[in-house]
Amino acid sequence: MVRILEETPGDPTAIDRAWEEPETFCVLPAKGDVSAQWVRAQWELLPERFERDHFALLTSGSTGAPKLVVGERCRAEALARLLHEVQDSECVAEAILTLPLSYCYSFVNQWLWARVVGRRLVPTLGFTDPARLAHTLEAARDGMLCLVGAQLALFEEHLPGRTFPGIVRLHFAGGPFPQARLERLAERFPNASVFNNYGCAEAMPRLTLRRAEEADEPLDVGRPLPGVELRRGEGGALEFRSPFGAVALVEEGRGRVLDPEEWIPTGDHGDAVQGGSWRLAGRKGDVFKRFGEKISLARIRESVAGAFDGEVQTYREVDRMGEEGFSLLLSPTPSDEDVRAVLLALRRKHPRTHWPLRVESVERLPRLPNGKVALGELETLEGKTLHWKNRI
Fold first, then answer.
1. CATH code: domain of residue 239
2. What is the Rg, in whole angstroms, of the alpha carbon atoms belonging to the chain?
């Protein structure tokens, strides 16, 4: 039977102890709504051999329901060693945690990396305690920081004007890469090399990597890691095979052992580009036709992100004529000047048929326990402000 660890923010000691013991464990998010009883019931759907030398994390499946992703410890340790090499991390002395360890990105890229290569791990409570986080970042010496793009707005809100020269590696994953904010990042983290990391929970979690300066487009996620294969599957769906990926999944009441030769969907669409890199077109559902023209919501968000210094999200809906469309949701609430800049960016880069049905905003976006935006809640979110409405 799987051992259940309820995450304690800022204190990874229970995970440290669990990794040293052979029994498989599952990390439950501190603010999640999944119970230990649910995890144990799902675990019964897997073969007995997974009860040792593995670990499990939770993510959301295609329907938004919880999904159990099972990794093998030796594969995860091998990935951590590889990341140390390809991320040029020999100069890094410490990893500063701002994300939950129930999130595969921080679990492998920081906690497990620090354990495998013998570096210091510095837990924090993140922006729950901004003053202590600022002190930790200012005291950093040759530090590594892993963030999601949404946290940049929190830096501006809670730590305006503060700079952190002790950070030498800055990693982003779990959402759009903030390519349009590289100048601001260079001011705040003047000594940091910035990396765009791409992957998914099923990859445990890394598939590609690129340095920020190697491309101008945020949707360019770089080249696959050594040993990782990517391909464009049916309908443009991006699929992978990896020697580091998950070995089993439990989703919607069904356990599945993954075949090493099986191509696993990432949930994104994408294409290979010159030089061996891959360019995303967006999540499943982000690419659709409106009035017969193909629209990529990822490209729409990319265009708007260059004009609005905040978070940019979209959600699908149907217009009054029954035609597929979408609305644009900004956060925090923009000024009138911001809205004009957004509309000008759309006008410059996209035909009118690609424009949103509405431009709306909320002061704060709803979030999942791992810090990602709760995309399934955007359409029905209350308190949205309407700034502009499309007349076609």
1. 3.40.50.12780
2. 21
